[in-house]
């Protein structure tokens, strides 16, 4: 079975071409058309590194972060620009408590927040789920800001992990014309071209169009990758109180399934980091994504508003590859592998409706939010492998020879997973006094799953109803300082069934958090510190009566400290800094060898620092910016049983630009300045994922 987006490709290409033509015509007409300025609800961040200070997905209301009883780190567009970010992955190192996990051969966004993976519900795009299924990595060209919401988000967003959730807010159409073209070229085979164009199409209609064409950097010359992004958006200001937004995104990526290299006797650096252990003759995987979102916002007056929205997301991941599912032979250099082909489609559709209002009850001001969400998800999995014994596809890890003949493939997985859920939520933010702010919320979800394993001829259904509450209290020491405490719960369904066919109970997360926040009087600087304690129960573990099955009886715990600082120090300096101490381990499991082991790929200590200085050049030569930063990631366990460790590493980068005139900028960045050999994460018991070696990237950006 293969699900495909190709059938609709011609019509979608024509649609994209039509949008591009309309934008070009509009840009040509702007010089003769008088445009009425339209006021649209502002969701953009500031020009410093702290980003927006209110109106985030943490509460879904226009609440200042200083009053929000939750750790929230906003990564704004300015920081993405200064980092020269081309992917979301380029920014996560500068947020406390975020760790890199197995990224499916470099093709998937997969991060842990406070020790727990954010996939399958922990990633949002404009408030809609965007991480379910094997979709492409998020490109930075369309991002306005990224909101990292620490702790459980189930009270507003349903099924998710207790560590946190990230919400990507995309660039919106503007009624002020602006067109920016960017070109970049660098070592490791990197080339990238972008277009960001926005402006009015009519007095009350604006567009935005982002285009990306990229040949991506590669850790090895044996393979390459490419990416194309088309992201059109429209804003229609129907009247002074009603705004309709439509956004779409089409992503096409071709990249190898690069599982990395292998550790030998616990040494992850035994094999050179640029070694490719797949086979270039298998070509690249196809990772496609198509997203459509539409929202209608209506200001009802007297402090009330309503919002309706819908999202449709389809992804597919398919192609041929060599999988490193084998083992090293006794000579410790011959690696057995499997030939494979896979098709992993998904369709994710959701609808939201919410209302927010302000009212006075009992002499106190209330901000009330009520909403409804319904979603349906289909995920398919069709993977075929060669026989590991009959066709081992052995390769010398120190002297690989490619172009081995293709193997005979037989089905390894053939499943269909259909999920649907409905959730209702209610939240109340109460001004108990001028100093004390209370937040209370709860969401009720009804979840159903229909799972079919065609090879095993198994069909399983399960249904659960779950309540997810949260409570928080904030004390404002003054207008710029606050302390808070909060508690919340989360859930996430467990797939599969026990030995008697019974469905597993969902995992359940309980989190406690306390912290403090500060912002400067001019709100150009902000800092936060948080302590947290999270327990996740009903984790799947081996059935003590039948090792071939699982039971929902395990437990893991994560606790620690996080600190973030960001903003504009003065007229010349911007800086961001972060630090995290995360103690995450297994506390209950039916396998005694796992109890007390640290969670896979989670460092105890991590941190980052980035700063840039700007100033004018003499003799009207424009402006310059020079900066740099470092990222430190501590030692991590390579396997669940802690049989080997990934070493700690520190990478350094420098960045610079010359603003020749208000329209033209030249940039020069050096990533991994000292060419540090490091490993982003591990996968399985054998494989490690090397980081990229030193890379130099030059760029030209012009605005017209």
From TrEMBL:
Signal sequence span per UniProt?
Answer: 1-29
Predominant subcellular localization, coarse grouping: membrane
Compartmental location: Cell outer membrane
Please state which protein family the record places this protein in.
Belongs to the TonB-dependent receptor family.
Could you tell me which species this protein originates from? Answer: Aquabacterium olei
Record-given protein name:
TonB-dependent siderophore receptor
Alphabetically ordered keywords of this record: Cell outer membrane, Ion transport, Membrane, Plasmid, Receptor, Signal, TonB box, Transmembrane, Transmembrane beta strand, Transport
Family annotation (SUPFAM superfamilies): Porins (SSF56935)
Topological category with respect to the lipid bilayer: Multi-pass membrane protein
Any one GO MF annotation of this record: siderophore uptake transmembrane transporter activity
